[in-house]
């Protein structure tokens, strides 16, 4: 396991830096902030990220710096773990809180047994179609760009994913809290939507926090500002 400790930011080979991504930041926002901190402190570095997090999701984002950017693909292939909230009895076009609710309905008839059985049925290998509000490319444009223009691409190519854990940890209808562990390329928003459809009431992702990427854990991550301060501290030490 990767334990919580001060993350290196200036090794010659580059570093993997664990970040706790804030709400409403894009993954590129985090990269730009950290890259800018290196530049401001007179130490320009190549910086990339391993595995995008949606703006409405928080939690573990791994940055790669220097020569470590060549290893990004190896981290992107690792399983991811999340905890979050699904809001049942409503749908949204984006399958999360980025777009308004519609088709509201009552969820009072659902039992805990039904809800947990539905979650258990998702465990295993399945095909999943990327949502329109995603960064997947289609004819030179991102799907989310087309979605914002009011277009829908019906022939979005499905991909095989694996769900190794989908556990309901709390039920407080219309919301349920869950933990899920998935393979590369899985969209948790789609799982939330399909979960609601299976229960016959609709659903969307109300909140999401990534807690692990492979053996890298969120409790070892630093805030964006903490990393920026650490870069400045190390730079000052070198100059001194």
Q: Can you tag this structure with a few keywords?
A:
240 residues; alpha+beta; Pseudouridine synthase; 2 domains; nine-stranded mixed beta sheet; two-stranded antiparallel ribbon; disordered N terminus
* Overall geometric form: elongated
Instruction: Give the DSSP E fraction (strand runs of 2 or more residues).
Output: 25-35%
Enumerate how many helices there are, as a single number.
6
Distance between the termini: 34 Å
Give me the CATH superfamily of the largest domain: Pseudouridine synthase
Secondary-structure class: alpha+beta
The low-confidence parts are 1-6
Give the mean pLDDT. Answer: 87
Multimeric state? single chain
Number of domains: 2
Q: Identify the CATH architecture of the largest domain.
A: 2-Layer Sandwich
Q: Helix and strand succession? A: EHEEHEEEHEEEHEEHEEH
CATH class of the largest domain: Alpha Beta
CATH topology of the largest domain: Pseudouridine synthase
User: Helical percent range?
Assistant: 25-40%
Rounded to an integer in angstroms, the radius of gyration calculated over CA atoms is 19 Å
Total beta-strand segments: 13
Largest sheet: 9 strands, mixed
